[in-house]
Amino acid sequence: MNQPERCLKLAFISPVFLFPADAGGKIRTGNILRGLKESGRFDITLLSPATAQQQRDWQEALGRLCHAFIGWAPSPPRARWQRIPHLLSALPINVVSDRTPAATAAVEQLLAAERFDVVVFDFVHAAVLRPPSLGGATVCFTHNVEAEIFERHASTAERAPLRWLWSSQAAKMRRFERAALARFTRVVTVSERDARTFERNDGLATARAIPTGVDLDFFAWQPPAGGAPTVVFTGSMDWEANVDGIRFYIEEVWPLVLAQVPKAQLRVVGKNPPASLVQGRVPGVHFTGFVDDVRAHARDAQAFVIPLRVGGGTRIKAFEAMAMGLPVVSTAIGMEGLDVEDGVHFLCADGAPALAEATLRLLADDALRLRLSRAARELVEARFGHRVAADEFGRILNEAVGAAEAVA
After folding, report:
1. What distances in angstroms separate CA 288 from CA 20, 231, 352, 379, one per listed residue?
2. How far apart are CA 257 and CA 234, in angstroms?
3. Per-residue pLDDT band at 260 (split at 50, 70, 90)
4. Which of 13, 92, 316, 366 could form a cystine bridge with 24, CB 3.0-4.6 A?
5. Which domains does the chain carry?
6. Residues 6+ apart with CB under 8 A from 283
7. DSSP notation for 90-152
8. Radius of gyration for the chain, computed over Cα atoms and rounded to the nearest angstrom
9. Order of strands across the sheet with 42-49?
């Protein structure tokens, strides 16, 4: 007689509050936790920064992700100039920012009070909160190869001081990533490419990849829109990679598009766009700021652009667009790590002239838009639903528990 599968007690530690789900990492983590809870195979305690008001406002949504939620007092927002002293640390700046007394105390208290079968730290910089004596099964959920992002910023920076700054942070992150990830039983990556990168650069044999998962019911398919020529980008506009990509697209690509289609509109959907972009007042360019639902602002677009020049991990925005039926044009980095084919599921274009040409093709060609839209949705349905990703994440958690028990 088969024994019933053991329900694992899981502590999941995130350095960010997951709501509103307005950034790729939050969306990915939320989908994973929801899938794990729905499976019935995990008893989940989620720990993250949260105000009392946030916990009240998002109580129902949190209940879909975990069985218990514990919040620590978040640090007040700090201006960039206030973080300058962090540059002197041996740790990268985003790691220093996450190591607050409230976060450290909350993690230590939770792990001292209860025994968990497996403890997950969300994002590599959250590893700075790991207690030195923590044993048992531990997992780090890496959404990017963080050092690679810093290196790409260094390669695209135009001024020497910025190149030095990004290079310095890249070296610090490379050291931190290597040392931190080596201490985990398993490391979860969001693509096979990232897993191979960690193995090649850091000698890490414990990395396991999951697919990028998207909520197929929420992001329902519909045929690409006709009507007024509209291009859309979605993403948090307080993330440097998105700012760099949109600035590049507006300054170098968009004039080439307008030269052929003067009435074209570019809609940038995402929270906290920098004033330097918003106040530029480029013809046809509109910034929405934060929106409750990106679908309403993207459905009427003939082209969904991902003009990223830096970044890491995988872009969940790409699969959300593909699930909705939006034809995608992207740089190679924008679709990096995703198992998609240029000309079948999206159009790949690097450099301003190529991106402009691909954008114009989508604006002009109804048949091309529909062909890409259907192929992309079929791919996402077959391989990239959020339950598929959560199932694989759960398998890796069980693998970590088994590996930890074997050496105990």
Report:
1. 16, 13, 24, 30
2. 19
3. very high
4. 316
5. 8-213+386-407 (3.40.50.2000), 230-383 (3.40.50.2000)
6. 258
7. SS-HHHHHH--HHHHHHHHHHHHHS--SEEEEESGGGGGGS-TT--SEEEEE-SS-HHHHHHH
8. 21
9. 68-72, 42-49, 8-13, 118-122, 137-141, 186-189, 207-209
- Cβ neighbours of 216 (radius 10 Å): 17
Tell me the residue length of the chain. 408
Contact of 14 with 122, CB cutoff 8 Å:
yes
Position 186, amino acid? R
Tell me the two tokens of residue 174.
């490379």
Please name the amino acid found at residue 209: A
Contact 204, 187 (CB under 8 A): yes
Backbone angles phi, psi at 240, to 5 degrees: -55, -40
pLDDT in tens, 51-71: 999 999 999 999 999 999 999
Q: Which two tokens stand for residue 330?
A: 């992207």
The answer to whether residues 144 and 312 touch, using CB atoms and an 8 Å cutoff, is: yes
* Contacts (Cβ under 8 Å, ≥6 apart) of 253: 307, 352, 355, 356, 359
Tokens of 203: 């000698």
| Cis status of the peptide bond prior to 20, with omega within 30 of 0 | yes
- 110: its two tokens: 């939770």
Confirm if 142 and 191 have CB atoms less than 8 A apart.
no
106 phi/psi in degrees, rounded to 5: -65, -45
Identity of the amino acid at 6: R
First-to-last alpha carbon distance for the chain, in angstroms, is: 28
Q: CB atoms < 10 A from the CB of 391, how many?
A: 17
- The SS3 of residue 247 is helix
Alpha-carbon distance 40 to 385, whole Å? 18
- Write out pLDDT tens, residues 94-148: 888 888 999 999 999 999 999 999 999 999 999 999 998 898 999 999 998 999 8
